[in-house]
Amino acid sequence: MSETSVALEALRSLDFPRQRVREVEFLMDGDDRRIGQHYSALAREIAALGRQGQSVAYLTIGDAMTYSTLGYLVAALKREAPELPRRVLPGITSYATAAAMTGFALGEGKERVLILPCPDDLSTLTADIEHNDVVVLMKVGRRLNGVLDLLQNMNILEHCALAHRLGLDGEVVLPSLNVRPEAGRLGYLSVLLIRKHPPEVFLKVYFIGAGPGAADLITLRGARLLGQCRVILYAGSLVPEAVLEHASADAERFNTASLDLQEQISLYRRAQQEGLDVARVHSGDPAIYGATAEQMRALRELGIAYEVVPGVSSFTACAASLGAELTRPGVTQTVILTRASGRASPVPDAENLASLAAHQASLCVFLGGHQLEQNVAELLRHYPPETPAALVQRASQPEERRHVATLGTLLGGLKLSDWTLTTMLLVSPALHDPTELQEVSRLYDPAYAHRFRRAHTGEGERTRRTCRPGHLAGPGRN
């Protein structure tokens, strides 16, 4: 083989003895008679060596049976020396290598894939592209400029990829032809991967509840997804930077505090075009005053999948900070979550604060720091002034503040402007000192039996068996 042989370059790394290598001329002039004569003569030479007991290897680039000269030789050997054993070893095709190096999916689902040498009549190529999802074009050669013109006219250049001299000196790999290359000699030893439509991009938007603010109160799932997503949207006015420590250092971050809905949707659309998962981080739990519904509607219209990852709500963080149970037996078994009416979205008239206060249940008022005087006045219409109440600001965060009093004395001596932002108002008879319990739950009473525990009737003796899961205790049952 000559120094310019492509197949010889594959042997160099094997330190193969040159004296055992012979260069073979490839006759590809389109004359079937002459081609048959040429490869018949080569087959006779190989047969003679085989009959002398020698093994012969025929080396060609790519895969030996894909647009290869070996096909002519195998046919000739069957005619000239049918008794000699033959074995063909598969190779890696140029188009499989090109697909791997450019990230080009050759076929997904039920897509139609056509592999062919570049035709001289490019009008037939137009039909091939229109009738298939993916076309693999080999042996492009001098026709490359014409093919690029065709793809440009079909407006699909950016969906196509080109690879030239793969694994060899002068290798060129173009994952997209959105910037048209200069043809030059790129057509030789090249493969074009043509996709009729843009590849389907799969991504998901994760609405992640960041919790009340402490970096370690985000869920394990939320932290994991935050670390995986390449794009992060978060409201910097509500989500502390500490929570974003779970994110990858090279993730692109956007503070949505200054963005309107359309600007956020444009970020989702850009992520869709790039196939990047998005972490949309909301304070607390996304399901509670998260303004997620309008975002979800836009994602559905864009055909973007989304998933909600729940978070620890600020109202439970406030209760934890106060060391309180909001549902105390014999006191209240109801928790009401509401918010102050504001410019962004008013509270329906039927849900006004006074009507909710009439239940005298545990009541948590979100987003009401700017209306404390008005809210307390509404609550006092139904709650007795001695009802325990509390203000908790930035629950779970290092700068957390608490103010505990009765509803009637709650605002006395306070500088209200200090409690305007990120403040929760809690009012509940359940906030009384737990040492003043008048009634307790029977759940852990020794005399209380349920399916997982027997009851004690005195002397430490258990008289009822635990019911098996799915079976209720009743007369005649142990």
Description:
By secondary structure, this protein is of the alpha/beta class. The chain has 4 domains: 6-80, no CATH class; 94-195, Tetrapyrrole methylase, C-terminal domain (Methyltransferase, Cobalt-precorrin-4 Transmethylase, Domain 2, 2-Layer Sandwich); 204-312, Tetrapyrrole methylase, N-terminal domain (Cobalt-precorrin-4 Transmethylase, domain 1); 315-436, Methyltransferase, Cobalt-precorrin-4 Transmethylase, Domain 2 (2-Layer Sandwich). Helices cover 25% and strands 15% of the residues. Strands 1-2-5-3-4 form a 5-stranded mixed sheet, with helices on one face. Strands 8-7-9-6-10 form a 5-stranded parallel sheet, sandwiched between helices. The chain has a 5-stranded mixed sheet with strand order 11-12-15-13-14. The longest helix has 20 residues, at 32-51.
Integer tally of domains: 4
The main β sheet shows up as: 5 strands, mixed
Topology order in helix (H) and strand (E) letters: HHHHEHEHEEEEHEEHEHEHEHEHEEE
Mean pLDDT: 86
Count of DSSP strands: 15
Low-confidence stretches: 462-478
Q: Which fold does the CATH topology of the largest domain refer to?
A: Methyltransferase, Cobalt-precorrin-4 Transmethylase, Domain 2
Which structural category fits the helices and strands? alpha/beta
Q: What fraction, in percent, of the residue positions are helical?
A: 25-40%
The N- to C-terminal Cα distance equals: 91 Å
How large is the radius of gyration?
38 Å
Q: Which properties best describe this structure?
A:
Methyltransferase, Cobalt-precorrin-4 Transmethylase, Domain 2; alpha/beta; 4 domains; disordered C terminus; 12 helices; 478 residues; Cobalt-precorrin-4 Transmethylase, domain 1; five-stranded parallel beta sheet
